[in-house]
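Before a computer can learn anything about folding, someone has to put a protein's shape into writing. The three-dimensional part falls to structure tokens, numbers that each stand for a local backbone shape. The protein below has been through that process, and both of its lines are reproduced in full.
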Amino acid sequence: MPPVDTPVQQDLHALYRNHHGWLYGWLRRKLDNAADAADLAQDTFVRILGKPQPCEIREPRAFLVTVAGGLVANHWRRQALEQAYLEALAAQPEPVAPSLETRQLILATLEEISRCLDGLPARVREIFLLSQLDGLTYPQIAVRLGLSVNVVQKAMTRAVASCYRAMYA
């Protein structure tokens, strides 16, 4: 023998049966999205079922619009928050820490450069590193170290030649 519905359950079944299609159409026009409209139509009835004290509904469509309207407002607020979060993520700089593979390549390259510069005078190594690692121009290096541009050029020539010999000799 099937269970007998209470009068409240019968009223809720009738509300769903008589107004679900209309509510879905209203939500679809409001949201311009069939999937979201279907979800919010169901959520509207779930919200009504969750009320502790069912009330007498005199104007079912007005009642449904009131409940669904609150859900629509929450939906739009959530979408705005998600969009703001995605924009904030997009505005973040690229991660500062290089990957493990990149770090190993950098360390290997630095070790190779160190080997290339071994045996050179300290001033020549410093000029080379200021140029290649710090990105300073020859005139900037000359000013920083109190040298002439010609001395910086000769030191760079010597450092590059040493690297070339270490790599290709």
